[in-house]
Description:
There is one protein chain. By secondary structure, the chain is α/β, with parallel strands linked by helices. Helix content is 37%, strand content 17%. The chain has 2 domains: 2-63 and 204-294, HAD superfamily/HAD-like (Rossmann fold, 3-Layer(aba) Sandwich); 93-200, 3-Layer(aba) Sandwich (Rossmann fold), CATH 3.40.50. The chain has 11 helices and 13 strands. The strands form 3 sheets. Strands 3-2-1-11-12-13 form a 6-stranded parallel beta sheet, with helices on both faces. Strands 5-4-6-7-10 form a 5-stranded parallel beta sheet, covered by helices on one side. The protein is globular, with a radius of gyration of 19 Å.
Amino acid sequence: MLFDNLMRTHMIIPKRSDLYKNYKLILCDIWGVIHNGKDYYPKAVEFLIDFQKQGGLVFLITNAPRRSKVVREYLLNMGIDKLICENIVTSGDCSYNWICSISDKPIFHLGPKKDYSLFSDLDLNLSNQDSCSECICTGFFDEYTETLDDYEELLNTLLDRKIKIHCANPDLYVHRGEIKLPCAGLIAQKYNELGGEVSYFGKPYTPIYELALHEANERQKNSISKSDILAIGDGLHTDIAGADNFKIDSMFILNGVHKNEIVSKNHSSKIDIDMIRDYINSNFSLSAEPRYIQNELK
């Protein structure tokens, strides 16, 4: 009973002053926290700028299957202040490091042409599903019109050939405005269910956090430990699970990828912490719940 009571008092709505005081580094998700795919959230940007002005360090950490320089350009074009766009680590960066290691092995890119920037500067031996020895999945060829059913034949071909899929974006879905779109993680999940082998780059897996912490400590001369880090995100199975895996504190943003499920259960204008806890416990396996929750980052 004592443990249950401790768990029930753990998740709180934070005060800015406490965040400034308790953390040196914020690892902040992008899509769903800073923008919705169409417009950025001014309050979130203002908070991150203020955190840096108080002496903190901000790294944007994202499952975008593109390299950080491409993501940075995208954010700047959206109008987001360059002060929070200096430090970015992406699952595309982790994927790129792996792609550089495969030499001239024939590789199949399962994903849209917009993701070619991931390897545009490499002399790859690009192939197809029938003759590849490696596969990198960055998403659906057309996320607006396709479903998983469109990939049944392709995935079975890879499965029959015992090809391992390397997933450059573990996210299952994102919202672009009010539209819910599927991501590479959904294809990888289906392939795994069929019996195929999958490896993932990005959240919730530790390499992307290790890379971010390494780069942060290069800037801060090894002064940051895990107890100094706060991860912020809207995805329970990526952002919050990733923080859980890496043993760092986290803040769950409600008005993101899970907003439809949460809004339907929350019948008050105030955050119902018990309802959020029940939703998390009923749908996700976490060894520790988020330290903080907010409707939006502000």
